């Protein structure tokens, strides 16, 4: 019974992680400017990767594999934050300023 519960928890975690990846991709495509796009993408992808890693950790039996998966996630977090920061700084300093939507809701 315990193994079945772990399999369901792992599947749920993997599904939730993929859902966050999908939400980040939708945010990348739908948000109006660079800053909101990279914010949505990095936040959703970091959480999605964490959930996928957690789901995979539940399926493995080796402590070495668990530590490797955890190391992958811990290295991806600062890499994602650094890439997000560099992209935002480049956008701020470039001549291509972030475009903000000027559309207003009719009254």
Structural features, described:
- The chain is mainly alpha-helical and 107 residues long.
- Helices cover 80% and strands 0% of the residues.
- The chain has helices spanning 2-30, 34-59, 63-93.
- The longest helix has 31 residues, at 63-93.
- The protein is elongated, with a radius of gyration of 18 Å.
- 12% of the residues are buried.
Key words describing this protein structure:
107 residues; 3 helices; single chain
Secondary-structure blueprint:
Elements: H1 2-30, H2 34-59, H3 63-93
Helix pairs in contact: 1-2, 2-3
Radius of gyration: 18 Å
Stretches where pLDDT falls below 50 for ≥5 residues? none
What string, H for helix and E for strand, traces the elements in order? HHH
Category from helices, strands and their pairing: mainly alpha
Strand content: under 5%
Helix content: over 70%
Q: Can you summarize the main beta sheet?
A: none
The number of distinct helices, counting runs of at least 4 residues, comes to: 3
Integer tally of domains: 1
Strand segment count: 0
Overall pLDDT confidence: 88
Give the overall silhouette: elongated
Name the quaternary structure.
single chain
Distance between the amino and carboxyl termini: 59 Å
């Amino acid at each position: 019974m315990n193994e079945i519960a772990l399999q369901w928890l792992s599947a749920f975690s993997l599904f939730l992680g993929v859902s966050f990846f999908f939400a980040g991709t939708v945010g990348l495509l739908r948000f109006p400017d660079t800053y909101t796009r990279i914010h949505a993408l990095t936040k959703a992808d970091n959480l999605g990767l964490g959930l996928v890693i957690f789901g995979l950790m539940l399926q493995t039996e080796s402590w070495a594999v668990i530590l490797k998966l955890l190391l992958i996630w811990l290295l991806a977090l600062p890499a994602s934050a650094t890439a997000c920061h560099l992209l935002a700084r480049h956008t701020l300093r470039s001549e291509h300023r972030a475009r903000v939507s000027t559309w207003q809701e009719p009254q």
